[in-house]
Amino acid sequence: MQAMNTLLKNFAKCSAFPFAVQHGVKKDLFPLRRTLTLSSCLKEGSSHSASEKLDLDEWKKVMKSGVQEASEEVSEHQELSTVAAAREAVEMWRLAGRAVPENISDDQLKTLMECPSKSSKKKYLKFLYLKELYKKNDKRKMEEKRERRLQTQAEGDSKPDDIKRNSFICSWASAMDRACNWRVAQSMIFGQPLVFDMSFENDMSPREVANTVRQIVFSESCNRKSMDPFHIHFCNFQDNSQYNREFIKQYREAWDNLLITVTEQCYTEVFPKNKIIYLTADSPKVMKTFEHDKVYIIGSMVDKSIKTGVSLARAKRLGLETARLPLEKYLFWTSGAKNLTLDQMMHILLTLKDTGDWRKALEFVPKRKYCGFVGKSVTDLRKTLNVVNTLKLGKGGQEAQKRQFAKNYSKKLIHE
């Protein structure tokens, strides 16, 4: 019986049985298998034991495994033929001028065959086509860039003077940058402190905070390029504040390398109160001269709604001395509030620190806010005021206001 099982197993694997299964006649072959089994049993004898029944079950398992292997081979053959057919269809579409990729892998073809509808197949092929097109464009740009670089190198070899000039400019810029960093580093040890009060976040909108940070960035850049820079302090600065987020957005990786002092402490805890002067446009006291032994405080605030007295009230609560710039003493102010931006204040203070000249310092005030300095003649100032008022008020009407305006400035000039 064991020999018979081996023979039938070899017959199932090596005979025409897989061929019959592949061509769909496997159902008709099962009676033949039963006949062979019965005929072999009749030749050996009519008596069957329990062991022979077990051998027959084992034979069924062997036959079923052969059918499974044959069906797997058939399905693999059908899958390969379907992928080949899909590739031929894609090639035909490409030759017909449709937006299909030139090179498509077997995995992409299988994904294409899994698409449920014709429109989804078209969209998938168009996606592959655009992806291939982008890769070709990137490759072409890289090659053009390489050719330009080689051409520039070749031209540079023929023009050594230009290369020397460019290298000199680059080395000069890096040397100036190192010199500026050295001066700012020295100011952190020996320089005069200048404090930005960072406690006004709750008094501004997010847009005003972002504008404030941009002005402080300009101020820091101006101070860094100065011959005698300030030692900048950020006091009342919180790590979880919007100020911090905006500074990181502006400076990125350079924020941790800035040569400034950032602290959560109040300026009254860092410096003695008798050395602090809070600069605010609302102060009743006019600043006469720049004092090099004082610590000037600037409120880090951009107030679009002109909330007067905010910084002055904060200085009074802390018992600090306040001061405002002498704008009316040196300038014929025409219109607008006497509030300046933070970078304009930085320019003015740096100029006062270097020269002590108010006229040079106040040249950083926007020209639209005043019509000239006090030192000019009355006639020239009246002509300037008439032109300004004509542009503001129009040619007709309100002549009395224009005359009164010029008269007040004339009296002021005569008294001074």
TrEMBL record:
Enzyme class, broadest EC rank:
transferase
Whether Kinase counts among this entry's keywords is no
The EC number(s) given in the record are 2.1.1.218, 2.1.1.221
What are the subcellular locations of this protein?
A: Mitochondrion
- Reaction(s) the record says it catalyses: an adenosine in mRNA + S-adenosyl-L-methionine = an N(1)-methyladenosine in mRNA + S-adenosyl-L-homocysteine + H(+); adenosine(9) in tRNA + S-adenosyl-L-methionine = N(1)-methyladenosine(9) in tRNA + S-adenosyl-L-homocysteine + H(+); guanosine(9) in tRNA + S-adenosyl-L-methionine = N(1)-methylguanosine(9) in tRNA + S-adenosyl-L-homocysteine + H(+)
Gene3D superfamilies, alphabetically? Answer: 3.40.1280.30
Kindly state which keywords UniProt assigns to this record, in alphabetical order: Coiled coil, Methyltransferase, Mitochondrion, S-adenosyl-L-methionine, Transferase, Transit peptide, tRNA processing
Query: Domain SAM-dependent MTase TRM10-type spans what residues?
Result: 180-372
InterPro entries named among the record's database cross-references: MT_TRM10-typ, MT_TRM10-typ_sf, Trm10_C_MTase_dom, tRNA_m1G_MeTrfase_euk
Q: For this protein, what is any one GO molecular function term?
A: tRNA binding
**What does the record list as GO biological process?**
methylation; mitochondrial tRNA 5'-end processing; positive regulation of mitochondrial translation
Instruction: State the GO CC annotations.
Output: mitochondrion; nucleoplasm
Q: Where is this region: Disordered?
A: 140-160
**Name of this protein:** tRNA methyltransferase 10 homolog C
According to its UniProt entry, this protein's organism is Crypturellus soui
Q: What is the lineage of its organism?
A: Eukaryota, Metazoa, Chordata, Craniata, Vertebrata
